[in-house]
Amino acid sequence: MSESHSEKDLQREVTELQGKSATAARLFDIRRIIGGLFVVYGVIVTLAGLTASDADIDKAAGVNINLWTGLGMLALGVFFLAWLWLRPSAPPPPGVEAGGEPKE
């Protein structure tokens, strides 16, 4: 009876660890990190572009480079975050390790 009980406990612990692993994989998805950084930096650079003086714009041959770069960074960040939202990473099926090879 003790052996059966310990197998159930072990299976429960394995299931809990698999759930935590899948949560960590989704949390640290590279698309989330890249998208978040581009959005944050895009907001900062866009604000710098919106508050640019005429002298700053004249230095860049009449182009508000901070504004356009910031908007581009925002667009790229939103793209990565939308990609993450539309195509979330699926956890590996049970019985398959992270390397993609089946467990023995």
Write up this protein.
There is one protein chain. With 104 residues, the chain is mostly helical. It has 4 helices and no strands. Helix 2 packs antiparallel against helix 4 (65-86). The mean pLDDT is 80.
List keywords for this structure.
mainly alpha, rod-shaped, 104 residues, single chain
How do the strands and helices of this protein lay out in sequence?
Layout (H helix, E strand, L loop, with lengths): L1 H26 L2 H21 L3 H6 L5 H22 L18
Helix pairs in contact: 2-4
Broad structural category: mainly alpha
**Any low-confidence stretches, pLDDT <50, length ≥5?**
none
The biggest sheet amounts to: none
What is the helix content?
over 70%
Q: Tell me the overall shape.
A: rod-shaped
- Quaternary structure state of the chains depicted: single chain
Radius of gyration: 24 Å
Order of helices and strands: HHHH
Please tally the helical runs, counting DSSP H or I stretches of 4 or more residues: 4
Strand content: under 5%
Average pLDDT for all residues: 80
Distance between the termini: 26 Å
Tally of strands? 0
